[in-house]
């Protein structure tokens, strides 16, 4: 869990909160999409909840685009 120190206070953020922070990072749409799918995969593996599973289109997108990020 990432930890930040702000004005002497220690702030620990969950994975989901870190993903929400990307709105402030001014990422392009492709990067934002990749991060959100990564978060979905992380939560599917951690919590094993059905609603975190990738649908076919998301799986295809990440499979096609992962090649370009290596």
Attribute tags:
single chain; 70 residues; mainly alpha; two-stranded antiparallel ribbon; 3 helices
Overall description:
The chain is mainly α. Helices cover 53% and strands 11% of the residues. It has one domain (3-69). The chain has 3 helices and 2 strands. Strand 1 (3-6) and strand 2 (9-12) form a beta hairpin. The longest helix has 19 residues, at 29-47. The model has no long low-confidence stretch (mean pLDDT 66).
**Which percent range fits the helix content?**
40-55%
Largest sheet: 2 strands, antiparallel
Give the strand line-up of the largest sheet: 1-2
Shape: elongated
Please give the domain count: 1
**Structural class computed from helices and strand pairing:** mainly alpha
Order of helices and strands: EEHHH
Task: Round the mean pLDDT to the nearest integer and report it.
Answer: 66
* DSSP strand content: 5-15%
| Spatial extent as radius of gyration | 14 Å
Distance between the termini: 25 Å
Count of individual beta strands? 2
Instruction: Please tally the helical runs, counting DSSP H or I stretches of 4 or more residues.
Output: 3
Low-confidence stretches: none
């Amino acid at each position: 869990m990432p930890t930040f120190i702000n004005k002497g206070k220690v702030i620990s953020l969950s994975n989901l909160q870190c993903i929400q922070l990307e709105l402030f990072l001014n990422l392009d749409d492709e990067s934002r999409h990749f991060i959100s799918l990564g978060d979905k995969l992380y939560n599917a593996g951690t919590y094993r909840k059905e609603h975190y599973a990738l649908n076919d289109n998301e799986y295809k997108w990440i499979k096609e685009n992962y090649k370009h990020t290596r």
